[in-house]
Amino acid sequence: NIHSDHRKIQFYVFDIVNKEPQMRRSIIIEKLRGMSPWLVVAPFWVCESLDEVIKTYDDLISMGYEGIIVRHNNAPYVKKRSTFMMKFKPKKEDIYEIVGFVEEESIHGVPKCSLGSFVCNSGDGNTFNVGTGFTADQRHYYWNHREEVVGKSVRVKYQYLIPKSKKPRHSVFVEVIEDGNST
């Protein structure tokens, strides 16, 4: 049975797997543009210098894009992370109040006696969790001192604020600030 909205599905093409270098693969993909309303070829720009990359990045971020992926034009297709391809997304940083904490759990739901995340106040009554960016030692330390950090400030890096909730998207722990001093 096919869902009644099946014609709304679109497939986005970013790359093609073959032995050709990046620029040739991009030309092959470009030939697919307009072949089907369900096939969308991701846009790409050719930049000749770092200044052009930075300008393109700034232009696309101002247009609402999440970020860019910069690829070397002679790079082969690699099925893993590679120095031929780099992702750039904006990062912002702010300070929030810690209002609670969540214990880390194993994949089976067993408590691990270490910090899973800080619960923070977004400044407008909403809360959000920060659970990445901690070392194992920090997780144990903050779990053992969890009551002491409630009410303190935490520096958080993130990509952007979610418009309606004002919560940071993809938040990452940087540091706890105690009495104006970083820890």
Question: What this model shows, in words?
Answer:
Its cofactor is a divalent metal cation. It comes from viral metagenome. This is Putative ligase. Pfam families: DNA_ligase_A_M, DNA_ligase_OB_2. GO terms for molecular function: ATP binding; DNA ligase (ATP) activity. This protein is elongated. The strands form four sheets. It has a six-stranded antiparallel beta sheet with strand order 7-6-5-8-11-12. It has a two-stranded parallel sheet with strand order 1-2. Strands 3-4 form a two-stranded antiparallel ribbon. The mean pLDDT is 92. 11% of the residues are buried. It has two domains: 80 residues, no CATH class; 91 residues, Nucleic acid-binding proteins (OB fold (Dihydrolipoamide Acetyltransferase, E2P)). Helix content is 19%, strand content 34%. A hairpin with a 5-residue loop joins strand 5 and strand 6. The termini are far apart. It has four helices and twelve strands, in the order E-H-E-H-E-E-E-E-E-H-H-E-E-E-E-E. It is of the alpha+beta class.
SSE blueprint and pairings:
Layout: E1 11-13, H1 22-30, E2 39-41, H2 50-62, E3 68-71, E4 85-88, E5 92-105, E6 111-121, E7 127-130, H3 136-144, H4 146-149, E8 153-158, E9 160-161, E10 168-169, E11 172-178, E12 181-182
Parallel strand pairs: 1-2
Antiparallel strand pairs: 3-4, 5-6, 5-8, 6-7, 8-11, 9-10, 11-12
Give a quick set of tags describing it.
OB fold (Dihydrolipoamide Acetyltransferase, E2P), alpha+beta, six-stranded antiparallel sheet, two-stranded parallel ribbon, 183 residues, 2 domains, 4 helices
